Amino acid sequence: MSAPLPTFVPVAVVGGGQAGLSLSAHLKTRGIEHLVLEKSTAMHVWADRRWDNFCLVTPNWQCDLPGHPYEGPDPDGFMRKPEILAYLAAFREKVDPPLLEGTAVTHVFPHPLGGFTVETSAGTLRADQVVGASGGYTVPIMPSYAGDLPASIAQIHSEEYRNAAQLPPGPVLVVGSGQSGAQIAEDLHLAGRQVHLAVGNAPRCARFYRGRDVVTWLADMNYYDMPVDMHPLREGVRDNTNHYVTGRDGGRDIDLRRFATEGMRLYGQLDGYEQGTLRFLPTLGKSLDEADRVYNGINASIDRFIDEMGIEAPPPSAYEPVWKPDAEPLRLDLAAEGIAAIVWCIGFRPDFGWLQAPVFTSQGHPLHKRGVTEVPGLYFLGLPWLHTWGSGRFSSVGRDAAHLAERIEEALSVARSPARLAAVG
């Protein structure tokens, strides 16, 4: 859509990713006028912030955006980056959203006469309802001492990583072992690079167990339909690090211990930097053990399900460590080890600085009930565990969008809209 910014719109959706376009699809179905505002291009993150060998870690059958389920030839496979981009391009074409790209939302605040004022790089408009669909992974996190490291060492965040050839020759330190860190470390390792990996507290899970993908087992166990208020951790689960596993080459486990037997150097959590040396905490053994405990625990829950349902399946098994650290390395001399590059994989933080409304915790996280805030007409969509595990993913973001579209329709009364009357009056 290329058109001037209107003075009023009943619903302004901030963010043109899969969440914003999913909501647009449901609003269009309900005949609700709206506008999606995107500072870059729709769903650009998948093209601009993913490495070349990136692939989904959940099976293709879980891709179920509104009116756009996966219909390819490999439902149990894992789409790679080009296939993901094609899937999303087809989704955008189906939705044909009212979309303004290259339009950054700079400020949103309640208007004293009702509704909201939405200030953008293209001008200002009024809206009765506003949906923050810009996601929870916005600003890359870098440590405060990154600037103190030698200038000879190339430093990039995971969102900038594309492939091993992008980095200068020599050993590479990857910091963080969540989904991105573990997969980037593997990508570099498979490319023949000497990898040093600072291991965090991320859990892991099996790719396949007892003859099926673990995701398929968990789906049959209704894990992915569990609402956040029924989870044992309640809202605390939103702070959890995702399990590391991969869909690469048809899918497999990521076993950091096996990488160590193949020459990858593992460390505990990074603790700081001084005079050319990085410090690490003695947490490596504990982190590996805890990740394996979660791995075996998930498999044990599948065992119980199989027994309860009387399902015929291959016999159970438990992971046994193939490597243990003899002594935990606590220091890394960057020059002595010839470290040429560091890839920071320590996550992102949300950025809702454009939204002036009392709907945030002291840490800046949105307060909501399934995306609905206590400020009338203000919503969030696409956040991790907004309602269920799949809320920020292709599997369930459409379901959350349908819920918000229903809430918006209930709350919206265009005929008596104070924002519309003020905008056109």
From TrEMBL:
Any one GO molecular-function label of the UniProt entry: flavin adenine dinucleotide binding
Assigned keywords, A-Z: Oxidoreductase
The keyword Glycoprotein is assigned to this record: no
Xref: Pfam families: Pyr_redox_3 (PF13738)
This protein's record includes keyword Oxidoreductase: yes
TM segment ranges: none
PANTHER family: FLAVIN-BINDING MONOOXYGENASE-LIKE PROTEIN (AFU_ORTHOLOGUE AFUA_4G09220), FLAVIN-CONTAINING MONOOXYGENASE
This protein's name: Putative flavoprotein involved in K+ transport
Organism: Aureimonas jatrophae
Lineage: Bacteria, Pseudomonadati, Pseudomonadota, Alphaproteobacteria, Hyphomicrobiales
